[in-house]
Amino acid sequence: ADGNYEVTLMTKATVHYDGRVIWEVWQ
Question: Which domain of life does the protein's organism represent (predicted)?
């Protein structure tokens, strides 16, 4: 459970970071 929880946090963080970068580029 702990392993999956960490992977989820990492995945969400990566998606959020990528989305922010793309948003800044399109601005």
Answer: Eukaryota
CA 3 – CA 25 distance, rounded (Å): 33
pLDDT in tens, 1-27: 567 777 777 776 666 666 666 666 666
Residue at token pair 């392993």: 3
**What six digits make up the tokens of 3?**
């392993």
The structure tokens listed for 17 are: 């970071």
